[in-house]
Structure formats: C-alpha cells, structure tokens
C-alpha cells in the first residue's frame, strides 16, 4: 500500500550502494533526556517544537518525508529493480507514546539512569514505531510502507526518550547523524547553510565514481588470506568451558575515557613502520574483536579463520563526495586471523592491520568501493554481499557510531543535552554483531554486541574485559 495524501510526483533514485535489497532495515537511535516538569503544558511544548522542526526540515529536504520503494516497473527478468524515495507525507511521522501512563511496567527515568541506561530497557517494539528488520515489529499505521524517517517521543516518569529511526537504504550511520543535526537546527529555527542545502539534496545516481570496463577487475574484491602472526602465540589457558548455549543476547559494556586511553597506548606499542599511529577506535575495535575471539575458543578449532568486517565511512576517500552528503556511502574492510592467533596476539598486532586497511596511504577502499559500485551497476540482480554472506558462527561485523555528535543535540526542547544515547535492542538473527555507540560527553563509549549465551558467560568472566570496562546490565 502506498499513501497518496501527498500528490507531488518527485522521486529520488538512491545511491548505487543502496540498490541492494538487503538494506531494507531501519537504524534506530534513542536519546534520553530528564524532565523536571512532567506537566501536560511542558509536553505539549515539546511536541510543538518537534513538529515545527520537522516542518522546516521537510521544507528544505522533502525526501526526509518520503517513502522507500522498490520499483519493478519495466525491469527485465531477474532484476531486483530500482530503489527510490517517493512522496509519502508532508513531514516525517511523529509518534507519541506515554509510557508513564500506559505501561506501569516500564522503568522510571531515575531507574534507567541508576542502572546505566542498559540496552535491555530499550526494546525496539516499545520505544520505536518500526523494528530494525523488515519482517519485525511495525506500528499498524505503517503496514506496507517504508518511510524514510520516523520519530517517536516516549514519555516516561521523570524523563523523555526520543527515538529517531531511519531507513537504511536512505542513510548510513553518518547520514543518520547528519539528518539529526539538521533536525536540531530546524527545531532551533536556525537557517540551513548553502553547503547543507546543496549536499543533502545532491543527486544520488552517480555519486560514487564508476570504473571504465578496461580498468574493472572484480577479482580485487575476493577475501584476502588470513594474517599469520610469527611466531604464532600460544592460546591462553582456558578455564572449564561454559555450557553450550547458542541463544543470542546483547552484551553491553561501558568503557570510560581512562580505559580508552589505556587501550590506545597498549595498541600503539611496537607498531610496524607501515602503521604511523593508532586511533582510539582502532584500539577499541581490536580489543572487542580479540575478546570475542577468546570467548569462542571453547567451541571452535584454534586454526578457524575469523574475519572482522568493519564498516567504514568512505566519503573521505572520494573528493567529489561532500562530507555532508547523507546517503549510503559505506564499505567494509575485511581482516582475517586464525582464531587462536587473534585471541592471544599483542593488541598492536591486531590494531596495526586494521589501521592500514583504512589509512589513505595503504588502503584499497577507494578502489574496492568503485569496483563494487561498478559491479552493482552492471548486475541485474544486486543481491550481492551483505548479511546474507555473513558467517556469524565465526566472524564479527562491527559498526562504530562514536563520531556521531548526539550528545550535543537538545532539539530546543528545553531539557538540556541527552544524558544517554542508546541503540534500541532487537532480536538479531545472528551473533557477532557489534555497535560502538556515540561517544558521551565525558569521552566514554558504550559497546553492545550480539553474542551467544556461552560467549557472554566467557566475556563476563574475562579479566581483561573486567579490568577496562563495566558491564551494563
């Protein structure tokens, strides 16, 4: 079903990387604000501010109020069609849910804060109008439609949870942050700059440079062999193996700034000449990957190839793409180690190849992204790569949102800046999925990982993890 209340006939053909059917998911971000005044007048003022902001946002960027469609009109047999944004509503839908009045079981804001805002308290079917997965939860009003952007205000006793949900064909994590920044400006009635108006409305059809056929070599996309460490370290001594438990759970850790500094220092020790430096994100990525590998030693052979699939914003690799461009401009680096090697190696031995895979002097991301875009452009069936080929039993898929400035967003609601920013929980279809949440105002980072129950038990007893992080339960 397609809503026709808005009769405009515009359309936005999405980026070539967004033409994969597997992107039909939603990314959700929940921002938590305390409220000193729970009166109806205050709530009405908040809703009015958000509605006005959404109107200003839509006036300058109409596509945010649109819907994603898979256009199969006139496509040849075997084609996956063309993904587009078409008109839907005048502004993105704003849902209001009064959990304080309608759900006595939902925790108060004070209870959430005392517990550290654990992910388990942010169930997507409660705080969001649409689930992560297409086949998952959806508000009945959204049946048969995939809006580009959805907002839900959740009123809790003593606070407010603002959920911003974006369709993943439309924006990647960087783009999600850009749209939230623009909504914040709109709520403040701050005019958009010419650069914002240009970049956010930029034509998406040829945004990534394609390769001429005489330079197109899809073989460069083949996975690289595992990195062997010489001499190979001995696997760490293990305690009694946990009881097998394949059921998935979200493991939530908080790393304070002091721990992040320690990790960066440790990962920067004895770097090869090809790696001039390590970032905090590199160090934390290497650490989380290593501890997940260690949690699997009890059930997988030590020589099992294990791959870290790290999502990377590739805007900086293409001068023609503005930093403010919001579309689907991510690729992934794949770094593989034998299981036991990765679990026992010095942290710098893992962090160095992660850095080399993304630093411009040594990275092949620009070439690989243009190659993959070219491959998609000549393929009728664009069901290539992605989660369908992800072996969750062995590998890890990691997305870092640490650079999103969510802790600076107040949306002119009169509530100050958010005290916590969380990714609502969902029933992940596979383990090994990791999110780094936006860096908080003190420089700390929360990490959430979908892991097997037995892996979570190992992580809970992991002395390295306990030394550096606090589990948020």
From TrEMBL:
Annotated GO MF terms: transferase activity
Keyword annotations from UniProtKB, A to Z: Transferase
Bias (Pro residues): 223-245
Pfam short name (any one): TRI-like_N
InterPro entries linked to this entry: CAT-like_dom_sf, Sec_Metabolite_Acyltrans, Tri101-like_N
Region (Disordered): 222-251
Domain of life: Eukaryota
Domain Trichothecene 3-O-acetyltransferase-like N-terminal: 25-187
Protein's name in the database: Putative trichothecene 3-O-acetyltransferase
Species the sequence originates in: Ascobolus immersus RN42
Lineage of the species this protein comes from: Eukaryota, Fungi, Dikarya, Ascomycota, Pezizomycotina
């Amino acid at each position: 079903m397609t809503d026709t209340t808005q009769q405009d006939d515009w359309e936005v053909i999405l980026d070539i990387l967004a033409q994969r059917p597997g992107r039909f998911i939603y990314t959700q971000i929940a921002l938590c604000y305390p409220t000193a005044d729970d009166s109806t007048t205050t709530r009405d003022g908040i809703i009015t501010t958000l509605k006005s902001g959404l109107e200003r946002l839509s006036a300058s960027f109409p596509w945010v109020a649109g819907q994603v469609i898979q256009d199969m009109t006139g496509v040849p047999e075997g084609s996956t069609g063309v993904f587009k944004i078409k008109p839907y509503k005048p502004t993105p839908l704003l849902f209001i849910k009064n959990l304080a009045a309608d759900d006595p079981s939902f925790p108060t804001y004070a209870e959430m804060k005392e517990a550290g805002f654990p992910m388990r308290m942010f169930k997507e079917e409660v705080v969001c109008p649409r689930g992560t997965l297409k086949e998952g939860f959806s508000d009945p009003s959204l049946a048969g439609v995939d809006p580009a952007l959805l907002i839900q205000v959740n009123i809790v006793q003593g606070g407010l949870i603002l959920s911003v949900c974006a369709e993943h064909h439309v924006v990647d994590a960087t783009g999600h942050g850009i749209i939230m920044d623009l909504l914040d400006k709109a709520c403040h009635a701050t005019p958009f700059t010419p650069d914002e108006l240009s970049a956010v409305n930029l034509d998406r059809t040829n945004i990534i440079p394609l390769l001429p056929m005489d330079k197109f070599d899809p073989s460069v996309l083949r996975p690289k062999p595992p990195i062997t460490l010489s001499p190979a370290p001995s696997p760490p001594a293990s305690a009694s193996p946990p009881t097998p438990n394949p059921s998935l759970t979200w493991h939530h850790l908080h790393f304070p700034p002091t721990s992040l500094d320690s990790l960066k220092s440790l990962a920067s020790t004895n770097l090869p000449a090809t790696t001039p430096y390590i970032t905090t994100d590199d160090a934390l990525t290497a650490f989380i990957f290593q501890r997940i590998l260690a949690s699997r030693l009890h059930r997988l052979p030590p020589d099992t190839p294990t791959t870290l699939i790290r999502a990377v914003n590739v805007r900086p690799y293409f001068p023609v793409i503005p930093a403010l461009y919001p579309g689907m401009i991510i690729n992934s680096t794949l770094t593989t180690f034998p299981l036991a090697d990765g679990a026992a190696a010095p942290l710098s031995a893992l962090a160095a190849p992660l850095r080399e895979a993304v630093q411009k002097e040594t990275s092949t991301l620009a070439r690989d992204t243009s190659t993959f875009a070219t491959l998609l452009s000549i393929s009728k069936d664009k069901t290539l790569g992605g989660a369908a080929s992800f072996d969750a039993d062995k590998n890890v898929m990691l997305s870092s949102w640490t650079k999103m400035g969510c802790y600076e967003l107040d949306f002119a609601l009169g509530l100050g800046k958010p005290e916590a920013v969380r990714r609502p929980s969902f029933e992940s279809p596979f383990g090994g999925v990791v999110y780094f949440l936006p860096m908080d105002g003190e420089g700390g980072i929360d990490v959430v990982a979908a892991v097997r129950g037995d892996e979570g038990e190992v992580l809970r007893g992991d002395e390295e993890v306990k030394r550096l992080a606090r589990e948020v339960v």
